[in-house]
Write a structure and sequence with these properties.
Oligomer: heterodimer
Number of domains of chain B: 1
Distance between the termini of chain B: 29 Å
Largest sheet of chain A: 9 strands, mixed
CATH topology of chain B: Outer Surface Protein A, domain 3
Radius of gyration of chain B: 13 Å
Strand order of the largest sheet of chain A: 6-5-4-3-2-1-7-8-9
Number of helices of chain B: 3
Structural class of chain B: alpha+beta
Distance between the termini of chain A: 59 Å
Helix content of chain A: 25-40%
CATH class of chain B: Alpha Beta
Number of strands of chain B: 6
Largest interface: A-B, 36 and 22 residues
Largest sheet of chain B: 4 strands, antiparallel
Helix content of chain B: 25-40%
Shape of chain B: globular
């Protein structure tokens, strides 16, 4: 921590956050594995609902607990969260308990009436996902018709006077060049652009190799973001900070320290990108509920210990990038104390070349809808 | 070390371009914005503004205390005099000015 003055008796904020907080700053809550799309990079391999998903009463109890822990807001996703019949009741309840809601949707269920309902709610933010500035680019990843559906939802929100909703884009090799067009699209709606990093998680494990941005594109993205501090990133590109000036945000991996994930069946994971038994900390259904998992799970306690820089120890950029994303390393078969597979200095690429085929941990099929013969015929 | 750290970790919208910075007047009475919640933490407190969706770290327990009780004093100076040792007051004045800029605290 070279920037800390000698007089400081307290550890720096980053160090303190690494040690974990009494409760998350915010958390991601995927409320269903059901989805009407089958995006090829879905980080939760969603498709079918799970019969064990939290009931409405159980979901209400989770919200009550988040209220008691003073979690200021929750990122609700899925699957497609709006297909749960109790979706609007749950978000309304959450807001009434002081737990603000930001939810991610593909937009397909946001008709004029629902847009008006959302416009009437305080402390609800809406994020509509598209992964390209045109139907061709987007639909190649998210499925036929998904771009049109998302745009229609944006139109409905704009007409309803919702205010500045967010347009959320996962950066891929095929849309980095569309940043100006995506920015113009957001500006046209008075919306906020939000860019996040593609992870090799869920179905993304199979497609990451073809979809992740090239090194040149990463540099271009970094420069673009440095010039636009107003573009939201959910702090997901901190590995790019090794290129120079740090991007705005906390610039650390918050998994199990300041963030976590609750999945549709109530299992608690370190972050939304590591749906794998190795990163499952417990369940909100366990005795003691979520707070017990957050404060006492062995996994989270371990994640809050000072991390070894491992293979990155001799790299002068480690302080800037902190070794990158744990999930990206895990699902590409790299050691967790080694470089990020997208290390901007190329260390990850070198190591990836040494990972034997099939050696990376598999996220499994998750809740993907099996491709059947009859579906293929159509 | 500054006593507050603003963060966009909350994925908050960017700070609105400051409309002619409402000048902070330590002789006036301020209070916590009703849309702000404070959560105690070992380093002080997390402050979250439900309106602007912005998050700020109050990096001392004493600052969190001052902010929490600000509205009970007739002015910022009186609040500081009641709680903060004199040599530390300039740093606290700066921290409060920054919180006023970002509307975490507002004049009555």
């Amino acid at each position: 921590m070279p920037s800390e003055p000698a007089t400081a008796t307290r550890p720096g904020l980053t160090e303190q956050l690494k040690g974990g907080l009494d409760a998350p700053i915010c958390l991601t809550w995927e409320i269903t594995y059901g989805c009407n799309l089958a995006c090829i990079h879905c980080l939760s391999s969603s498709g079918r609902r799970d019969p064990r998903e939290l009931s409405t009463d159980e979901a209400i109890a989770v919200i009550d607990e988040l209220h008691d822990l003073q979690v200021f807001y929750v990122n609700i996703g899925g699957g497609e969260p709006t297909i749960r019949p109790d979706f609007y009741d749950l978000i309304q309840y959450s807001v009434s308990r002081g737990v603000g809601v930001k939810f991610s949707t593909n937009g397909s269920t946001i008709n004029a009436e629902r847009a008006a309902r959302l416009a009437g709610m305080d402390y609800v933010d809406v994020q509509i996902s598209i992964d390209g500035a045109d139907a061709e680019t987007n639909d190649a990843v998210r499925g036929t018709g998904s771009y049109a559906a998302a745009r229609q939802a944006m139109d409905h929100l704009a007409h309803a006077g919702f205010g500045p909703f967010k347009i959320s884009v996962v950066m891929t090799r095929h849309n980095v060049e569309q940043l100006p067009a995506l920015e113009a699209l957001a500006d046209g709606y008075g919306a906020q652009l939000r860019l996040t990093r593609l992870r090799p998680s869920g179905r993304g494990a199979e497609t990451w190799g073809q979809l992740h941005p090239t090194q040149d594109q990463q540099v271009a993205l970094y420069r673009w973001l440095i010039d636009r501090p107003g573009v939201l990133t959910g702090d997901s590109f901190f590995h790019l900070s090794a290129l120079g000036e740090a991007l705005p945000g906390l610039n650390l991996c918050g998994a199990g320290r300041v963030v976590c994930l609750i999945d549709p069946v109530g299992d608690v994971y370190a972050c939304p990108f590591v749906l794998h038994p190795e990163f499952r900390a417990g369940s909100v259904r366990d005795p003691g509920g979520f707070a017990q998992v957050w404060r006492h799970s062995e996994l989270f306690i371990e994640l809050r210990q000072p991390a070894a820089a491992g293979a990155c120890a001799s790299c002068g950029s480690y302080d800037a990038c902190q070794g990158g994303c744990m999930a990206a390393k895990f699902f590409t078969g790299l050691p967790l104390d080694g470089p990020d597979p997208e290390c901007v200095l190329g260390h990850g690429e070198q190591m990836l070349a040494g990972v034997a085929a099939g050696a990376a941990p598999s996220p499994g099929p998750g809740h993907s809808v099996p491709v059947t013969l009859s579906a293929r015929r159509r | 070390m500054p006593l507050t750290t603003a963060s966009r970790a909350a994925d908050a919208p960017p700070a609105p371009t400051p409309p002619a910075p409402a000048s902070f007047d330590a002789s006036a009475r301020y209070r916590l914005d009703p849309q702000v919640a404070l959560r105690p933490e070992p380093f002080g407190a997390l402050a979250y503004h439900y309106g602007s969706r912005r998050l700020t770290f109050l990096r001392s327990e004493l600052l969190a205390e001052v902010v929490r009780q600000l509205g009970e004093h007739e002015s910022v100076e009186v609040a500081l005099a009641a709680t903060v040792p004199e040599p530390d007051r300039p740093a606290y004045r700066r921290a409060l000015a920054s919180l006023a800029d970002s509307r975490f605290i507002v004049a009555f």
